[in-house]
# Entry
Amino acid sequence: MRKYILPSLKLTVVFIVLCSVLYPLLIAAVGWLAPGGGRGEAMVINGKVVGYANIGQRFSDDRYFWSRPSAAGYNAAGSTGSNKGPSNPDYLKDVEAHIDSFLVHNPGVKREEIPAELVTYSGSGLDPDLSPAGAKIQVKRVAAVRHLSEDKLNELVDRYTQQPLLGIFGPAKVNVLKLNIALDTGGAN
# Structure
């Protein structure tokens, strides 16, 4: 019996140290090296934090590029997807409502042109990014409301498009908060 208990206790202590001390310290160190030191990338205007670059926010005013819909109501404390499948009647009603709202605010856009990300929930409910197509389909609306040239707004979207890591990992994406901050601070002029 001693033959099995002593090695088991040693292995337990090793794994407690490894999993409860070393691994958390490693993850904390990676966080400290990340932008914002693991506290998130705060977006500051005039000394005031207006949001975090990695947490999606609601933008519903026509002056702004809209974010992806959130099943969590953009509540970072309760991030969640909708957990409803694509054939769920309630989910389909939500998608239809998002499509109808988008079409009302973006005249001239056809239903089939709307990128799926603009009418469906993300897995976390807090997705801060859109594809370049998701941002560019909104250019006409934002340009009309802000009295800006569509070409300038397309250039702004291109400027804020982040390419895939090393050119191969992940899709190209546009951070909606950063794009809207650039609009408000004169980045489109």
Summary: The chain has six helices and five strands.
